[in-house]
Amino acid sequence: MLTVEDISRAGDFWRAALGYVDRRPPSEDWVILDPPYKQSWDAPGASLALSVTGYPQHYPPRIHLDIYADDQPAEIERLLGLGARAVDWDDYPDDADWVVLEDTEGNRFCVVQTEPDPAPD
Q1: CATH superfamily membership of 2-53+64-113
Q2: From CA 10, how far away is CA 107, in angstroms rounded?
Q3: 76: alpha, beta or left, given left = phi > 0 and alpha = psi -120 to 50?
Q4: Per-residue pLDDT tens for 16-26?
Q5: How many CA atoms are closer than 13 Å to the CA of 80, on its beta-carbon side?
Q6: Nearest-angstrom CA–CA distance, 17 and 15
Q7: pTM of the predicted model, to two decimals?
Q8: Helices (H), 45-116
Q9: Model confidence over 24-78: pLDDT tens digits?
Q10: Measured between alpha carbons, how far is 89 from 86 in angstroms, rounded to an integer?
Q11: Which end of the chain is more exposed for a tag (fewer CB within 10 A), N or C?
């Protein structure tokens, strides 16, 4: 679950970022997002719950999502276009394969560059 202050704004962002859909219509303070192929709550595929808390985000967060991308710069640009924000992060190691962003509610997440699949023999 991610805590949010604006359920509509956060839902719009994560639906577009992940390609997820509402499990059922959102309430004023809660929504569960599922992969579009997921037909029941216990089917395979991770769900994402968003909940209005009424208090600001705290850092460091206890949990964050990683989004894996074959083309990290393009994925970062796409997510920034959806409303994500860059995070001024000073703790990157020299060989970092991730970039820290935050969603519309201040929840941090990483965009991780995937390794290319090895060529078949």
Answers
A1: 2,3-Dihydroxybiphenyl 1,2-Dioxygenase, domain 1 (3.10.180.10)
A2: 10
A3: alpha
A4: 999 999 999 99
A5: 12
A6: 6
A7: 0.78
A8: 72-82
A9: 999 999 999 999 999 887 888 899 999 997 766 666 666 778 999 999 999 999 9
A10: 9
A11: C
